[in-house]
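To whoever is on call:

I kicked off a structure prediction for a single chain this morning and the downstream step that reads the tokens threw a length-mismatch warning. I double-checked the sequence; it's 205 residues and nothing unusual in it as far as I can see. Pasting both halves so you can look.
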Amino acid sequence: MQKKTPVRVYTDYKSPYAFVAKDRTYALAEEYQLELDWYPYTLRIQDYLGTLDTRNAHQWRRVRYSYMDARRLANAQGLVLKGPERVYNGYYANAGLLFAKQNGLFRIYNDTVFERFWKRELDIDSLAAMKALIADIGGDPAAYEAWAEGPGRSEHERVIDEAEAMGVFGVPMFVLDGELFWGGDRIGMLIERLIERRAAQEKQA
């Protein structure tokens, strides 16, 4: 059996572009025999897009375009993408990703959080809402709370620090053999590298 190629994926539930790239990433893993390792990269939106009260005209044009563009991509996949009503932090959801990985719940957690958030059915900054979601997918909400309010915080920061040391600054971000590919529009380039990598391995065999 051919060994799967490890690819690290950085995501953030409040990113519309991470949302619309999710299913394509799953498909990529199946087609190219990838071992995906998903991690959160919690965007600090206010650092580059300001707060709702302080955004300038340029930032607002950028925000409006981004949601319009992501909605086009979502519509093409039959996904519902409603613009968020406020600026979210997302820690509880992203810490939950790490919790879900540890407890064998990653895929259902990833799909459910993304789907509910972009339908405006989930407050990812609410601990109570995230506990309810964990219960809905068969997890232990008390264990999740203990994780999120305890070791999850330092682990979350460690993951962010590690990502930034590699050069990560946005999502979705794919890392193959130390090379970074940012955005769903770079998946084609990632595929080229995977094909090149496979050809090199076959030549050496």
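Update from on-call: the warning came from a stale cache, not from the record. Cleared it. Sanity check on the structure: The chain has one domain: 5-204.
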